[in-house]
């Protein structure tokens, strides 16, 4: 009996996680369609409960307060149209920006990154190295520890960020 209850709780948890992921994907799609020209949605996530955090970048200048206000005005109606009426935070990706799309890995070849994979590879889930190449399905990381090159499929990445030394 106890075991059955545990399964139900696990199923419920997985169901909630799937719903949250689907909601973020819908919101991100709406945001991408509403962003000002020359802008890019780097990441979208719920932070601290109902707070929707959007990390945005732009091609032609810094992500400053004025730009964030412009983005908020542009995307506010889009997320409301998807049924979201909670708080919205617009921010730059920061110095240790997330790498969330294959084009990010291609753009940052030659830069150091930290990568966490969903399932262990050779007994490890965390890697740090220099991005030395990126294709359609995978990227190559030259590990800081030992200098070996490792090809990682994009689908295996749980999280990746640039690693910048200041």
Comma- or semicolon-separated keywords:
5-stranded antiparallel β-sheet, 166 residues, GMP Synthetase, Chain A, domain 3, alpha+beta, SH3 type barrels, 34% helix, 2 domains, 3-stranded mixed β-sheet
Q: In CATH's first tier, which class of the largest domain applies? A: Alpha Beta
> Roughly what is the average pLDDT, rounded to an integer?
87
Individual helix count: 3
Beta-strand content bin: 35-45%
Which fold does the CATH topology of the largest domain refer to?
Answer: GMP Synthetase, Chain A, domain 3
Family: Belongs to the RimP family.
Keywords: Cytoplasm, Ribosome biogenesis
Function: Required for maturation of 30S ribosomal subunits.
Protein name: Ribosome maturation factor RimP
Short description:
The protein contains 3 helices and 8 strands. With 166 residues, it is of the alpha+beta class.
Outline the structure in words.
It is a single chain. The protein is of the alpha+beta class. It has three helices and eight strands. The strands form two sheets. Strands 7-6-5-4-8 form a five-stranded antiparallel β-sheet. It has a three-stranded mixed β-sheet with strand order 1-2-3, covered by helices on one side. Helix 1 (2-34) crosses helix 2 (65-81). The longest helix has 33 residues, at 2-34. Residues 99-162 form the Ribosome maturation factor RimP C-terminal domain. One of its GO terms (biological process) is ribosomal small subunit assembly. Its main location: cytoplasm.
């Amino acid at each position: 009996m106890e075991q059955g209850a545990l399964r139900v709780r696990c199923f419920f948890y997985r169901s909630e996680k799937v719903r949250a992921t689907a909601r973020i994907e819908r919101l991100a799609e709406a945001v991408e369609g509403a962003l000002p020209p020359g802008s890019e949605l780097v990441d979208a996530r719920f932070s601290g409960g109902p707070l929707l955090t959007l990390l945005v970048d732009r091609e032609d200048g810094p992500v400053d307060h004025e730009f964030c206000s412009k983005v908020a005005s542009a995307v506010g109606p889009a997320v409301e149209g998807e049924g979201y009426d909670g708080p919205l935070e617009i921010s730059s990706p920061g110095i240790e920006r997330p790498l969330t799309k294959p084009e990010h890995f291609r753009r940052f070849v030659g830069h150091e990154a930290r990568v966490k994979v969903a399932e262990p590879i050779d007994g490890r889930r965390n890697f740090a190295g220099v991005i030395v190449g990126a294709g359609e399905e995978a990227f190559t990381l030259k590990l800081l520890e030992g200098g070996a090159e490792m090809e990682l499929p994009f689908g295996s990445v749980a999280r990746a960020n640039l690693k910048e030394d200041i």
